[in-house]
Design a protein that fits this description.
about 400 residues, 4-stranded parallel sheet, about 55% helix, about 10% strand, binds iron/sulfur cluster
């Protein structure tokens, strides 16, 4: 039971748990991020600085912040540790078919249902197979190439893959032994991250394993077979990733002239066929048909506080929306999503040079992936307000 007696069903994660709201979560994740950052200074930043100087020297990208590179490496280490066996068993033809079908699916809406059907069947087999008898190479650039291919084939890591490919170029530019040493550091650090994040954030993701054991099987054969099967450590990575990105982009967001909040359709009180949101081109704007709808509430607050609210029907519409409404404008965007969608969205905003901040939905409940009927999700409004006004968070608890 959550605030105002509302029933909050925990499918995989809940930032509220038994509390009144998700304030404790925001304190905990900020505290954890501080700790991880401190530890990374000694263990990972020497690698990060070498990497940054390589990127700068070769003009491969406009240098990003330390926080962003730290996330890139944590992300690489975590995905590597969880999926390197699956990645090593994915054949080149399987990768080629799945990755290209994913690209086609994004370009052609008409073909999407057929492609999704096929990718669901093929992905369930090809992306999840593990051959226990095969001896696998663990720490090598060859394995990194396989991990990148696997990520591309899933379609879940669009933006992450671009960054990882740059890191691979860096590793290839240095002596083999050095590259191996760097990979080892990243993987060991991500192992310690998994343990520490688990200690602090487990209370918010306690249902993930149960969900994977009991309900996940319903997604076998479907396009979201990898999305819904993401492991608890990946939720923790996204939570810390969101915090790292908010810190990295805060100043630019604060100085942007206009602010917009993008709310996911899973926050609507009414189902799609009853919701009276107005579709203007790619944009959906709430018309206020239900007084108890959270999107209605945040839209009214936005008018008072001076930010726009837009509804993003599905994460796959995100890129098109950004290109039509945000690129080229002096606008700071707050993306709201569940942990599994948030990072790709945040990285995409960054690559389009849009100053972004993010807020997690307090729990998931959409009909597309998590619940047959679907139920409205919500966010911590104080957190949104704090982000919009650029106030600094206070860290309350010490757990490690
Ligand atoms: S209040 Fe707005 S978002 Fe909510 S159901 Fe009505 S039109 Fe849709």
């Amino acid at each position: 039971m959550g605030l105002n007696g509302k029933i909050v069903q925990t499918i995989t994660y809940s930032l509220i748990n038994d509390a009144e709201n998700s304030d404790y979560y925001y304190h905990d994740v900020a505290y954890l991020t501080d700790n991880i950052f401190l530890k990374a200074e000694k263990e990972l930043f020497p690698v990060i600085f070498k990497y940054m100087s390589y990127l700068g020297g070769k003009s491969l990208e406009i240098l990003r912040t330390k926080e962003e590179y730290l996330f890139d490496l944590l992300n690489a280490g975590t995905i590597w540790r969880i999926y390197y066996k699956e990645a090593s068993n994915l054949t080149y033809p399987e990768y080629f078919i799945l990755a290209n079908l994913y690209k086609l699916r994004r370009k052609n809406k008409k073909l999407k249902p057929a492609i999704d059907w096929f990718r669901g069947k093929m992905g369930t087999y090809s992306l999840r197979k593990v051959n226990m008898d095969r001896k696998l190479e663990f720490l090598s650039i060859k394995t990194l190439t396989k991990v990148i291919r696997w990520m591309e084939a899933t379609g879940e890591f669009r933006e992450d893959v671009k960054r990882l490919k740059l890191f691979k170029l860096f590793l290839k530019s240095i002596p083999k032994e050095k590259a191996k040493d760097y990979l080892e550091r990243i993987i060991q650090f991500s192992g310690r991250f998994e343990f520490e994040a688990g200690t602090i954030l487990k209370q918010y993701t306690a249902n993930v394993d149960r969900y994977l054991d009991e309900s996940y099987k319903e997604h076998l054969g479907k396009e979201d077979v990898i999305f819904c099967g993401r492991k608890e450590a990946e939720y923790h990575l996204s939570m810390v990733g969101a915090e790292l990105m908010n810190r990295a982009f805060k100043a630019k967001f604060k100085s942007s002239k206009q602010k917009a909040v993008l709310l996911p359709a899973c926050m609507k009180l009414l189902p799609d066929e009853k919701c009276k949101a107005k579709k203007i081109s790619l944009d959906y704007v709430c018309t206020g048909c239900s007084p108890n709808c959270k999107i209605n509430k945040y839209t009214s607050t936005g008018r008072e506080m001076g930010f726009e609210v837009h509804i993003i029907p599905h994460s796959s519409d995100f890129t098109k929306w950004l290109n039509s409404f945000a690129v080229g404008r002096d606008i700071g965007v707050v993306g709201v999503a569940c942990p599994l969608n948030l990072i790709t969205g945040g990285l995409e905003l960054k690559s389009l040079n849009i100053p972004a901040q993010c807020v997690l939905t307090d729990y998931c409940g959409c009909k597309t992936h998590w619940d047959k009927e679907g139920f409205p999700t919500d966010i911590n409004f104080d957190e949104l307000e704090r982000i919009i006004s650029g106030n600094t968070k206070t860290i309350a608890k010490s757990v490690i």
